[in-house]
Amino acid sequence: MRRRIFAKRGRWSESQHVWVLEGGWVRDFADGSIAHYEQFTAAAPPELTEPPSYFNREVRQAFQMSLPELGTYIDGLHRAGFDVTNLTVQWHKKIAYPLMAPVSMLLAIPFAFLVGTRGALGGVALGVGIGVTYWAMAALLEAMGSVGQLPPLLSGWSPDIIFFFLGMYFFFKMPT
Questions:
Q1: pLDDT tops 90 at residue 31
Q2: Are residues 103 and 167 in contact, defined by beta-carbon separation less than 8 angstroms?
Q3: Which long-range contacts (CB under 8 A, 24 or more apart) does 126-131 make?
Q4: 97-119 pLDDT, tens per residue?
Q5: Residue 46: is its pLDDT beyond 90?
Q6: Rounded distance, CA 161 to CA 58, Å?
Q7: Domain extents for the chain?
Q8: Does residue 30 sit in helix, strand or coil?
Q9: Contact yes or no for 19/45 (Cβ under 8 A)
């Protein structure tokens, strides 16, 4: 740290594009000790040029952003040195989520023929059970990825991969 500025009050001067600070002090540091100390009643340090809008960042959740927005947000946070594991899981999940429909259909085809003789209610119950199992597995794998137990890529795509191979297994085991 090279300099610390403290003020009791500060306001933005739109005409001069600087912060006007009141009732404070400035400390400059060199080699770990205080090199200069100065009190002021009013000051406009030239290095403070960020307007108030700089500090009014909108915080949005991952589900509120589009895929490119989330990717840009992750990249910015990663370059700033933050842990972006949870957001990366959300990014992969955002890509993998639309594939849930075809994967579910692939899994449903063999069961539609299997359950056809057992009645419609049995088919509906089996479909709801498969759906609940999918969502529970997706939530578990997402949580595991968010805490670092699984890589984000695997965490986001695992439910689709597991149910795809399960569907392929049942599809090829279906009696013809």
A1: no
A2: yes
A3: 130/104, 131/104
A4: 889 889 888 888 877 776 656 67
A5: no
A6: 35
A7: 3-55, 62-173
A8: strand
A9: yes
Give the list of residues 6+ apart from residue 101 with CB closer than 8 angstroms, or none: none
Alpha helices in 29-119 (DSSP H): 67-79, 85-96, 100-115
**What amino acid is encoded at 94 in this protein?**
K
- The whole-angstrom separation of Cα 144 and Cα 136 is 12
Q: Report how far apart the first and last C-alpha atoms of the chain are (Å, whole number).
A: 75
145 burial via Cβ count (<10 Å: 0-12, 13-18, 19+): buried
Pairing relationship of beta strands 18-30 and 3-13 according to DSSP bridges: antiparallel
CA angle in degrees (0–180, nearest 5) for 50-51-53: 120
Please state, in angstroms and rounded to a whole number, the distance separating the CA atoms of residues 40 and 118: 86
Q: Which residue has the tokens 């969502």?
A: 135
Q: Which residues contact 157 (CB under 8 A, 6 or more apart)?
A: 92, 96
Confidence of residue 171 (pLDDT cuts 50, 70, 90): confident
* pTM score, whole prediction: 0.62
Q: What is the DSSP string of 125-176?
A: HHHHHHHHHHHHHHHHHHHHHHTTSS-HHHHHHHHHHHHHHHHHHHHHHS--
For residue 148, what are its two tokens?
């670092």
| 112-170 confidence digits (pLDDT tens) | 776 656 676 777 787 788 889 999 999 999 999 999 899 999 999 999 999 999 989 98
